[in-house]
């Protein structure tokens, strides 16, 4: 299978005999040929913008910033920006710039996140922290964020404000993930709040940019933003399940990275809340970061067959359904149908 944009890792798309893609990448399933053509062409242009943005005269920065761009990824947030633009006048230069900005911001946070999580692999390649070191990884993330800010400046002060608010929430979520729940707050509520901030915020903004910059009506802008906020939590929950149930081939990341770091995820929180005596060993294992390879394997095995996984899948499904309901009020067009399909896809990703 060849992706229409030529990207390498983590992309799902189907190529038919004519050479034309029969669907959009990653779960945005549609048979509408015009939508496929427009969005595929848009993504190709975003790829060029990303390559330009990651370029630097400085040889080391050029290599470190180009590293994750070249490794691929789903380009899910720019895809959402382009889909949202279908509710207005699609794929203007401003929409393309915003699509590039959200992916650059996402990538900047991945460089930083991999330092926080001491992750060795991302998008099927070594992380920047593993390939170089933490300092290079952090500063490369900052470099990409600076490039995103330069592009944003051309989109005007409202866009800059939206991006700044989004980044504030994202960072707050990343910090809150490292903290205990507040007084009277359950671990699960705390965690779901973290996901809304660290992941829902940028996915909501990806859609908002697309809708706003294409001139969609304020009601549509609002609905798509709310959709992104809720869908983003389902998306992250699916990722959490995959960190336990998935394999390297599928995710491009090392399974169990969250366990090694002692980062809470919904399946581990549900397992910790369980009270059955058979799970006592699992609860003990989960009470601290697990560094020993054999213990990580034992924990992954125990979790995979634990009810906590189905509970986490059910919660992901609930968020996907809540997001889906918001779509009912949108104009009926092929982009809306693709978003409906996405809500089904995010859940099936976890099973
Ligand atoms: C990874 O995001 C971080 C999460 C919010 C789950 P993606 O799953 O979109 O990663 P890439 O961009 O495809 O690598
Ligand atoms: C997502 O968190 C990172 C951001 C939202 C910045 P995770 O740590 O769960 O994501 P992965 O699994 O490393 O992609
Ligand atoms: Mg991580
Ligand atoms: Mg993390």
Short description:
The protein is mainly α and 351 residues long. It has helices at 33-53, 59-71, 76-85, 93-116, 128-131, 134-153, 157-177, 187-213, 218-245, 248-251, 257-261, 266-273, 280-285, 293-304, 307-327, 334-348; strands at residues 121-122, 125-126. The longest helix is centred in the middle third of the chain and has 28 residues, at 218-245.
For the structure shown, list the relevant keywords.
single chain; 351 residues; mainly alpha; Farnesyl Diphosphate Synthase; two-stranded antiparallel ribbon; 68% helix; globular; disordered N terminus; binds 3-methylbut-3-enyl trihydrogen diphosphate
Would you write up a description of this structure?
- The protein is an all-alpha fold and 351 residues long.
- It has a single domain (11-349), classed as Farnesyl Diphosphate Synthase (Orthogonal Bundle).
- Helices cover 68% and strands 1% of the residues.
- It has 16 helices and two strands.
- It has helices at 33-53, 59-71, 76-85, 93-116, 128-131, 134-153, 157-177, 187-213, 218-245, 248-251, 257-261, 266-273, 280-285, 293-304, 307-327, 334-348; strands spanning 121-122, 125-126.
- Strands 1-2 form a two-stranded antiparallel ribbon.
- A hairpin with a 2-residue loop joins strand 1 (121-122) and strand 2 (125-126).
- It is globular and about 60 Å long.
- Mean pLDDT is 91; it is low at 1-21.
- The site of one 3-methylbut-3-enyl trihydrogen diphosphate has 9 residues, from helix 9.
